Amino acid sequence: MRSLKYEEVYLLAYEDVRVARGGIGGYMRFFNQERPHQALEYRTPMAVYMESVALKRAA
């Protein structure tokens, strides 16, 4: 994933694997729950997912 590399990994020098996992995990939460995506009409992946769940329940 390009965003992960350019917005997180390449910018930070992690001390060890444990710290890297924590940082990457935090970025993934941000990426999926807070960061709008142009391909999703500037919605977050979580918002798109929740919308699809609601539509399935309504059907």
How many distinct domains?
1
Structural class: mainly alpha
- Note the total helix count: 3
In whole angstroms, how far apart are the ends? 34 Å
How much beta, percentage-wise? under 5%
Taking Cα atoms only, what radius of gyration do you get, to the nearest Å? 15 Å
Mean pLDDT: 94
Give unreliable regions as ranges: none
What share of residues is helical?
Answer: 55-70%
What does this structure look like?
- The protein is mainly α.
- The chain has one domain (2-58).
- It is built from three helices and no strands.
- The longest helix has 17 residues, at 17-33.
- InterPro entries: Integrase_cat-core, RNaseH-like_sf.
Sum this structure up briefly:
With 59 residues, the chain is mostly helical.
Task: Please describe the structure with a list of short key phrases separated by commas or semicolons.
mainly alpha; RNaseH-like_sf
Helix and strand layout, with pairings?
Elements: H1 2-9, H2 17-33, H3 45-58
